[in-house]
């Protein structure tokens, strides 16, 4: 009773703060939790005219169809490959940029570089896709004009299954690396300057300070961002790929998000696309839990 009374007094004393939470809570309830009722579609042969209550219940039939679908297995492989490429190649780069910018002493130069590298984040994927489709076009594209001038043959980057994943990873990095670096730059700003002063007195140079103070200081943020990135392993960039790919590169570029879009809206197979989406969410949840557990076990750091 004492603990409960203490909590009630805490709430009464901070009613204004709890009132500020209400809009966010209402938003989550209406747009995140209420729509979860639609998950039942994954266990039905959903008919848009009969609705959820009138559609036939088929149990796990949609998931059996999912497991035995060769097309879905290809889509799953594409999703995992593209996500792993983005983690292995793109995740360390913002950390390196943050570490290097922290060593820049001219504030004007530092702020200019920061502004230039994070500006692409504010462009939509529609604009960026159109930009790179033109740049990489085999007929008049800037890159292919350079290849021609060097005596080579034009390359169809956007229709070549061997190159399309590379284009996806490169454009994702061009758009988001600068913005992601801001998180690590902010984490570096929170490190106590006394540590650097003490290290300098002990004779540590800038590289040693970076490796012994800055990097360990932002390690909790690195672990947090990595766990969140692992949790979204099956989210390989649906919006990005949807605006860039075409039927010629479905074999290498079709991911779970675009597959759900094609099956749900394109073929109106709502039950199957919902089953795919539910599978995606369940795996994402397990990946976050597993990543957090492994981080806590081996690195003694975790989100919770």
Automatic annotation (TrEMBL):
Keywords of this entry: Cell membrane, Membrane, Transmembrane, Transmembrane helix, Transport
Origin superkingdom: Bacteria
Family statement: Belongs to the binding-protein-dependent transport system permease family.
Main localisation: membrane
Protein name: ABC transporter permease subunit
One Pfam match: BPD_transp_1
Membrane topology type: Multi-pass membrane protein
UniProt KW Transmembrane helix keyword: yes
Signal peptide per UniProt: none
Cited Gene3D superfamilies: MetI-like
Native source species: Paenibacillus sepulcri
Domain ABC transmembrane type-1: 76-291
Compartmental location: Cell membrane
């Amino acid at each position: 009773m004492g603990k409960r009374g203490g909590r009630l007094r805490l709430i009464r004393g901070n009613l204004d703060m709890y009132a500020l939470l209400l809009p966010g809570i209402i938003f989550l309830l209406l747009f995140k939790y209420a729509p979860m009722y639609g998950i039942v579609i994954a266990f039905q042969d959903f008919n848009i005219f009969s609705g959820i209550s009138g559609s036939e219940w088929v149990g796990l039939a949609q998931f059996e169809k999912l497991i035995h679908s060769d097309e879905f297995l290809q889509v799953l492989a594409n999703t995992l490959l593209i996500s792993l490429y983005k983690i292995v190649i793109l995740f360390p780069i913002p950390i390196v940029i943050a570490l290097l910018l922290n060593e820049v002493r001219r504030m004007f130069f530092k702020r200019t570089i920061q502004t230039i590298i994070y500006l692409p984040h504010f462009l939509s994927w529609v604009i960026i896709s159109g930009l790179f489709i033109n740049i990489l076009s085999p007929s008049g594209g800037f890159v292919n004009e350079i290849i021609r001038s060097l005596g080579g043959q034009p390359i169809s980057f956007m229709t070549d299954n061997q190159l399309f994943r590379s284009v996806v990873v490169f454009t994702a990095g061009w758009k988001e690396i600068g913005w992601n670096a801001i998180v690590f730059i902010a984490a570096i700003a929170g490190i106590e300057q006394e540590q650097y002063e003490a290290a300098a007195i002990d004779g540590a140079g800038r590289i040693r300070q970076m490796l012994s103070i800055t990097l360990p200081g932002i390690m909790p943020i690195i672990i947090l961002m990595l766990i969140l990135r692992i949790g979204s392993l099956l989210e390989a960039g649906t919006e990005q790929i949807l605006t860039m790919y075409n039927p010629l590169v479905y074999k290498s570029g079709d991911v779970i998000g675009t597959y759900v879009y094609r099956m749900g809206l394109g073929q109106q197979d709502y039950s199957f696309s919902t089953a795919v989406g539910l599978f995606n969410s369940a795996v994402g949840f397990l990946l976050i839990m597993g990543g957090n557990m492994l981080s806590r076990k081996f690195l003694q750091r975790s989100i919770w």
